[in-house]
């Protein structure tokens, strides 16, 4: 039973809904049905949410495969927690940065990519060690 992945999938889902709700609340307050209404802050909110939806599925899928293939629980938690932290850091950094530049955005992206690459290598290595 992949309980560690279940934990991080649930936490990522809550974060995703929180990010989506910021977009919805803004659109409702400005009466914007689709898009950002050319509002810079809403464009940023939309990208923060979209970026999370782009990276979360692959990271969680790789985490699930690693868990099903027996990666140790400590490593699963380290990678899952790092990924969640990275997504929070990215969301804060992109929202707080002027012109999109902020250390939170940089490190959030860098950590997300690192976790995804580490999980990819773990999963690929497992394939070759099993054959």
From TrEMBL:
Classification via Pfam families: MAPEG
Cellular component, GO annotation: membrane
Keyword Membrane included in the entry's annotation: yes
Cellular localization per UniProt: Membrane
Residues passing through the membrane, by range: 6-25, 72-94, 106-128
Domain of life of the source: Bacteria
SUPFAM superfamilies xref list: MAPEG domain-like (SSF161084)
Keyword DNA-binding included in the entry's annotation: no
Chief location of this protein within or outside the cell: membrane
Keywords: Membrane, Transmembrane, Transmembrane helix
Protein name: Glutathione S-transferase
Lineage: Bacteria, Pseudomonadati, Pseudomonadota, Gammaproteobacteria, Cellvibrionales
């Amino acid at each position: 039973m992949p309980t560690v992945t279940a934990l991080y999938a649930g936490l990522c889902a809550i974060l995703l809904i929180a990010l989506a709700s910021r977009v919805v609340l803004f659109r409702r307050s400005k009466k914007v049905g689709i898009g950002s209404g050319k509002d810079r802050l809403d464009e940023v909110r939309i990208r923060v949410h979209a970026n999370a939806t782009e990276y979360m599925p692959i990271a969680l899928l790789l985490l699930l495969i690693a868990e099903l293939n027996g990666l140790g629980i400590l490593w699963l938690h380290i990678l899952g927690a790092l990924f969640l932290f990275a997504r929070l850091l990215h969301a804060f950094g992109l929202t707080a940065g002027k012109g999109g530049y902020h250390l939170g955005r940089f490190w959030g992206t860098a950590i997300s990519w690192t976790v995804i690459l580490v999980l990819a290598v773990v999963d690929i290595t497992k394939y070759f060690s099993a054959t």
